[in-house]
Amino acid sequence: LAAVQISPSILSADFANLQAELDAIASADWAHVDVMDGHFVPNLTLGLPVVERLAQVSPAPIDAHLMIEDPDRWAPMYAEAGASSVTFHIEAAANPIALARNLRAAGARASMAIKPGTAFGPYADLLPELDMVLVMTVEPGFGGQAFMSDQMPKVREVREAVRRYGGEVWIQVDGGVSARTIEECADAGADVFVAGSAVYNAESASANIATLRALVAG
Ligand code: DX5
Ligand code: ZN
Questions:
Q1: How many CA atoms lie within 13 Å of 90's alpha carbon, on the beta-carbon side?
Q2: What number is the ipTM of this complex?
Q3: Is any ligand 1 atom within 6 A of the Cβ of residue 63?
Q4: Is the CB of 102 under 6 A from ligand 1?
């Protein structure tokens, strides 16, 4: 496996102080930004103009997780706005191959997310178009939810499909990832770990990042 990567979710950060909150996770590999449109998921967060400014000031590259309808139309604009990785949900994509190609053409890593109730198998053929697969370990929409261990077989299935394909595709987990659950995810084959409340809701974000990293490094 490639080296493990930590991607703190700013969903649990102080939205009135995002520049400072991004600086606080400068030691992370990515800054995970959850875009929710109030339609694909019941929650509403932030959109394109905010992501564009975050990309300009963040020490860590932006890992945009788009929980939105019509990603075919909107996702490439997040790449153009400066997100280095753009994740769309397969459940919302009309033409995922064209979408992934548009993301790469715009200079971003192309990533596909799958909700807990969505099977990976039907989309395994997309791997050559993708730089990352995000296996959700909660229902998307809110931070602070309980980790779903029952998604670990899916992580193993994606890892096996990536091995068979032979290319380099990262596997991200998002939702309920903490010091208690991160090793389980790594054992199943994940190598990019999103953590919101586990990073921001305890004293020092940088110490929390180091703790998570130490649990899965090497
Ligand atoms: C949930 C978001 C996650 C969320 C994770 O829909 O995609 O990125 O911020 O938060 P925690 O780590 O608290 O489960
Ligand atoms: Zn997310």
A1: 25
A2: 0.99
A3: no
A4: no
